[in-house]
């Protein structure tokens, strides 16, 4: 299928079609051109995602990996907090775009990994009267989508911060990375070259943090970043959500990015 030509099992029908090209239909088949470079006619032949997998219920997982690594995937915040209490030094994983690099190229050792991708409370996106609340596990591509919705529906003076973040996300990594990388993962990595962390501060964002006992505290973005790859998270604490207040009248937020490349 990737070549734009039919498979060999239909060759005899193909010859009939080609010999009478221009007729409306030949039997059940419409005449088509089998150009080497034009495969648009085969778009509808793409395999669909298996419905059995799409309908499958999510389950909590505990997997054993090479070298004694244990991988947990809880579904509820309470279960995640219990695991955090049991394993305070465990590494939380969302898109794995950072931790994978650390393990493969920097020889980092994380015997306990906890995936937060399926925790319902961390995937909340809520449009409120005073701002937008974003769960820390929300994907960057999903954030892009909700920002466009907000920009369309809210008064223009309220969405200055949202527009700046949306514009910056256009040049943030590639689409494949944005489809898996999470908002909270990018924040907690505290990279000095992060595109978004300066914008969270400029937008007066607030971070909700929950500890292993369920207590929640709120920290302003400008106070959350303590230094090079250091953030205001105590052992056992988790970034729960990010809150962006609507911009006020005569308040403007604008993003700029200096880069050697258009993407990445």
From TrEMBL:
PANTHER family, per database record: XANTHINE DEHYDROGENASE
Coiled-coil stretches: none
Cofactor: FAD
GO terms assigned for molecular function: FAD binding; iron ion binding; oxidoreductase activity
Name used for this protein in its record: Xanthine dehydrogenase
Gene: xdh
Domain FAD-binding PCMH-type: 64-249
